[in-house]
Amino acid sequence: MNDTDVSKQIQQMVRFIRQEAEEKAGEISVSAEEEFNIEKLQLVEAEKKKIRQEYERKEKQVDVRKKIEYSMQLNASRIKVLQAQDDLVNKMKEDAMKELLNISSNHHEYRNLLKELVVQACFG
């Protein structure tokens, strides 16, 4: 073989090696891109899961706060009703005492009231 043939053969071998290296580099690049996309997708899904969990936790907190607020408002309403009932009973008691004082000053009415109360007690 002469120098030209050797040079051609070496050039051919260099081209072949270069082509093999480029193909291998392409494969490595594609593989790296796939691994990157898989890792990226896993990270995105993990963050989505964290966000969903955080949202659910905050939603539960809001529900608990709403229930507590509703309970407090309900209790406040009950207290108002009980206070109104108590005020009414006290007013009726005061009115009855005033009326009893008025009746006790009139001997005839007082006697009739006592008689009616005794009769009512006997039947009731």
From TrEMBL:
The keyword Transport applies. It comes from the Eukaryota. One of its GO terms (molecular function) is proton-transporting ATPase activity, rotational mechanism. Keywords: Ion transport, Transport. GO terms for cellular component: proton-transporting two-sector ATPase complex, catalytic domain. Pfam families: vATP-synt_E. Belongs to the V-ATPase E subunit family. This is V-type proton ATPase subunit E. It comes from Triticum turgidum subsp. durum (Durum wheat).
